[in-house]
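so my prof wants the structure for this chain in the tokens format not the other one, which i didnt know existed until like an hour ago. anyway here's the sequence
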Amino acid sequence: MTALTEQPRCCAPTGDRCGEGVLWHPGEQAVYWTDITRFLIHRYDPARECVKSWLFDEVVSAVLLTTRDNVLAVCLGSRVILWDPTSDERRDHGFKLPGWPAVRLNDAGVDPRGSLWAGSMRNNVNADGSDGEAGGTDGVLLRIDPDGTVHEMERQLGISNTLAWSPDQKTFYFGDTLANTIWSYGYDNETGGIRKTSAHLASFGRGLPDGSTIDADGFIWNCRWDGGCIVRVAPSGEAERVIEMPTRNVTNCTFGGAGLDILYVTTAASPDRGDRLAGSLFAMKTSVRGLPENRFRIDG
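here's what i got, hopefully its the right format
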């Protein structure tokens, strides 16, 4: 069985410097994603083949569904906000990242319990959007519960990337780009606790691990920074197949479409002069389905 029924196609040539945080919104049948270093959120409407963008005042790293269909949770560099795209109303959720601006939020996800998980890293984006210096192990992994309680789950991280939960809700996957590793953890759906069990994908030879999604069969689809590809990883940890992409820096992906069988992929700028599609949003039809996005509980 092949995992693809069509090759990757460029559906939005937005020229992002660092496209990231991609989200399928089932109520709108639309894709949201960010451009971290241009402080943007984009929305792509596949039916109309059009893009709308919003400008923010700092890094924007992730967009997440909430239990209110018209409100999205947005991870900025310094904090989490709640945002209504229709009215453009923006209000603080209440969480602010300790240590900002020396560190910033990066990849994020929502667990089956409705808690928001966000990883941080040394801030590599200056206030004007220019590149700063990355590196170190300043990052932490945080769980923000619906009542606002914050739990530190991991620390001494380089660049937090990949947050995904298995279909049976018993395993959590989390990665550190600089360590070139995605780990698996036992996940307790009652308490939200995790226990590291093993390296799920380590030292893979194509680039470094960036964002990921998971399909209904429990396979991780991991985007490879500087690797020009996506690697599909079996629940056993084996690299089941490599999907070649037409650009170098592949950053994040999610399943969308009415059947959750279209993979949407974000990318970033490339140092290769001939990489003209770098920073575009791509789509490809697959023969497998994704999982519905979990929603951050904000009711009441």
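also thought this was worth mentioning. The chain has a mean pLDDT of 96.
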